[in-house]
Amino acid sequence: MxxxxxxxxxxxxxxxxxxxxxNNHQSAVxxxxxxxxxxxSSLSALLEKELFRLGVHTYRLDGDNIRHGxxxxxxxxxxxxxxxxxxxxxxxxxxxxxxxxxxTAFISPYRxxxxxxxxxxxxxxxxxIYVKCSLEExxxxxxxxxxxxxxxxxxxxxxxxxxxxEEPVAPxxxxxxxxxxxxxxxxxxxxxxxxxxxxx
Length: 200
Description:
This protein has helices at residues 16-23, 40-53, 63-68, 78-97, 111-120, 135-141, 146-151, 182-195; strands at residues 28-33, 58-62, 101-105, 126-132, 173-176. It is of the alpha/beta class.
């Protein structure tokens, strides 16, 4: 997508580095990806609460919430899924520039789309978190009843049933929600952020 010639980028008089220094932590995108029902939304919500408790400036972008507003005009075709993730990537980049640790909870089934978001951020600003859970377990959980509808043919192009999910090849963090509780997973991510000096 090209930028019209008459548009000019206006630099802020406050830098990202200055915002990070004021916040006393780095900013980055924690990109949660995984099948529907794997635990992305629950995990990211609990993590945000814990980071907030620790004094970290955060914001969470959730798939369903974004489709209520910013991306309400998009469906679930491959093209619309790609555009959905492109827009989220751009919003997340703005939030990183604002000095926030930004969590995104989206199925984001295509590896290329996730890699595209990584490419628009600076090095070490994209932390891919693969929320791993077997399709069988996700179907058992089925919190929204979507797998049941997909199996009945009421939803077409549903990830894991009749649309692909491309697992991350080398995510920064893998969380197996069949093996770990949400609380354990949160602590694992907090440890990563501390060990890599994103937060104190």
